[in-house]
Amino acid sequence: MGSEAAGSDSRIVFFLRHITSISYFFHETMKWALVKPFKGKPLRFGAAVAQMEEVGVKSVPIVALVSFVIGIILVLQTAYQLEKFGAINYAASLAAVALTREMAPLLTAIVLAGRVSAAFTAELGTMLVTEEIMALEVMAISPISYLVVPRFIAMIIMLPCLTVLADAIGMIGGYFVGTLAIGIRSTLYIQNTIDSLLVKDILSGLVKSVVFAAIIAMVGCYMAFVVRGGAEGVGKSTMISVVTSLISIILADCLFTAIFYLFL
User: Fold this and answer.
1) In 3D, which of 27, 121, 108 has the Cα closest to residue 70?
2) How high is the pLDDT of residue 232?
3) What is the pLDDT confidence band of residue 174, given thresholds at 50, 70 and 90?
4) For the chain, what are the domain ranges?
5) Closest CA to 128 of 196, 221, 199
6) Residue 119, number of CB atoms within 10 A of its CB
7) Cα 193 versus chain centre, distance
8) What percent of the chain is predicted at pLDDT more than 90?
9) Burial, 207: exposed, middle or buried (Cβ in 10 Å; 0-12, 13-18, 19+)?
10) Which pLDDT score, from 0 to 100, does residue 38 have?
11) Mind spelling out the 3-state secondary structure of the chain?
């Protein structure tokens, strides 16, 4: 009984220690991204652009595929229920709102969490194991400034862009299945979509995407800096990074959805 209580206490301490560490990690990242540039420490824009291509441009095909299919599924599922009430034309409205407020930002973040968070942890974790990060510190170069900030900036910029792309492609997928398979008139489908969407629907999805981007970047990079045990440790940290990112994204999505529902 005593050993179980001690094990529970140690897990709580372990969790609180990591929460404190990642808070400090985020604070340092924001300092190097927002404050230090005004004190003569320029940002590495070239590295940030390279990361934008890696995390954003190369993610376009999979994000486009997922959002197109989700748009089709949303229209089919909503039409199946609305047909019972003779309101099948409103499938376009429901699908558009669900995409912009919830599905597009959430699924885009999940796709990038699996692809990008793992890549960040594996890349930086390998650098830590091979003592490249230590070499930066010896040269008086901040690893956070040199390695983390470009990745953070890339995620903050590219995930909202990918979310907008997912919104558009998801609506196109819904349009095709709604007009061709369900039989909604093209002009009626487009008009219902335009009438149902409000600016706050799109903005709420973009706000979520910015938060999700910060979570993916911070968790992915932080888990690399706590790698222990060589190549095996890199693999373990990569797995933990993806799982932690996914859970954090879903919890953040739940929180923001409740806030937007209650106050917007």
Assistant:
1) 108
2) 84
3) very high
4) 44-263
5) 221
6) 17
7) 26
8) 66
9) middle
10) 85
11) CHHHHHHHHHHHHHHHHHHHHHHHHHHHHHHHHHHHHHHCCCCCHHHHHHHHHHHCHHHHHHHHHHHHHHHHHHHHHHHHHHHHHCCHHHHHHHHHHHHHHHHHHHHHHHHHHHHHHHHHHHHHHHHHHCCHHHHHHHCCCCHHHHHHHHHHHHHHHHHHHHHHHHHHHHHHHHHHHHHHHHCCCHHHHHHHHHHHCCHHHHHHHHHHHHHHHHHHHHHHHHHHHCCCCHHHHHHHHHHHHHHHHHHHHHHHHHHHHHHHHHHC
Residue with tokens 């940030």: 48
Phi/psi at 141 (nearest 5 deg)?
A: -105, 125
Q: Is 164 left (phi over 0), alpha (psi -120 to 50) or beta?
A: alpha
| Chain position carrying tokens 């909202």 | 160
